[in-house]
Design brief:
Layout lengths: L4 E7 L2 E6 L10 H15 L6 E6 L10 H7 L4 H19 L5 E5 L3 E2 L1 H7 L3 E5 L3 E3 L13 H8 L1 H10 L2 E3 H6 L5 E3 L4 H14 L2 H14 L6 H15 L2 H11 L8
Parallel strand pairs: 2-3, 3-4, 4-6, 5-7, 6-9
Antiparallel strand pairs: 1-2, 7-8
Length: 260
């Protein structure tokens, strides 16, 4: 346990990272940002990991910025604000670029920077009845550092609305927009997360990491000769790898592959 995070290893190939400030609805401060950055750097470098679950203890997933932190920021200079925003941007990038798939367990309300943290997850499972809110405009601010990730995950048209209105939107609305992958009753949330994690762990470890990177690398790119050549190289590399050969042989001989 660290000061603001609860990091667990429930299975050899699975890690859990829990925001552990339920008394302030898991709001960010500079310590949370720094510890999340460090945690995901270390977990991303762990070759044995196949899945990371990101969740929050208590009623809320993450309420955005901590009030005490916001009070301090009110007196920051431009340079101090820039440094502070840079740290948050680095944390979001570190989670987003983590080679291990990240499953977001969204059990309660998710506001402002918390929406950004949800957006950098690869799979989002949310409890029915919880809400999201990009509330920055209410404070005369904007969701700048989280913006690139939220626009990609939520979609440009929905972001055009919720960035400027700062309205709350439900988990059901987020699911309809494609931001949330799975909805679950609160009492069934952990079971649904466990099913997603089990699916990840059952797949080829190198293949899963390669698949995650493939989506990032091809999204939005024109399907030109360079992209086609890149995809040809990638599948040839994996087919010729030990894992690829083992997976195909296991399938052909109707047995489990070695990684299971």
């Amino acid at each position: 346990m660290t000061a603001t995070l609860d990091i667990r290893r429930p299975q050899p190939h699975v890690a859990e990272v829990w925001l552990n400030r339920p008394e302030v609805r898991n709001a960010f401060n500079d310590s949370v940002v720094a510890e999340l950055t460090q945690a995901f750097r270390e977990l991303g470098a762990d070759a044995d990991l196949r899945a990371i679950v990101l969740g929050g203890h208590g009623k809320a997933f993450c309420a955005g910025a901590d009030l005490g932190w916001m009070r301090a920021m009110a007196d920051y200079s431009w340079a101090e604000n820039h440094a502070d925003a840079s740290a948050l941007a680095e944390m979001l990038w570190t989670v987003w670029s983590c080679p291990v798939p990240v499953v977001g367990r969204i059990q309660g309300d998710c506001y402002a920077g918390g929406v950004g943290l949800a957006a950098v997850c690869d799979v989002l499972v949310a409890a029915e009845g919880m809400h999201f809110c990009l509330s920055e405009a209410r404070l005369g601010l904007l969701p700048a550092t989280i913006g690139p990730y939220v626009v990609r995950a939520l979609g440009e048209q929905a972001a055009r609305r919720y960035f400027v209105t700062a309205e709350r939107f439900s988990a059901a609305q987020a699911h309809a927009l494609g931001f949330v992958h799975e909805l679950a009753a609160p009492e069934a949330l952990d079971a649904r997360v466990a099913e997603v994690v089990a699916a990840l762990v059952a797949n080829g470890p190198a293949a899963v990491r390669a698949c995650k990177q493939l989506v990032k690398d091809v999204a939005g790119r024109p399907i030109d000769a360079a992209l086609r050549a890149d995809t040809v190289r990638r599948i040839a590399d994996l087919r010729a790898s030990d894992e690829g050969r083992e997976g195909v042989q296991a399938f052909l001989h109707k047995r489990d592959p070695a990684w299971r």
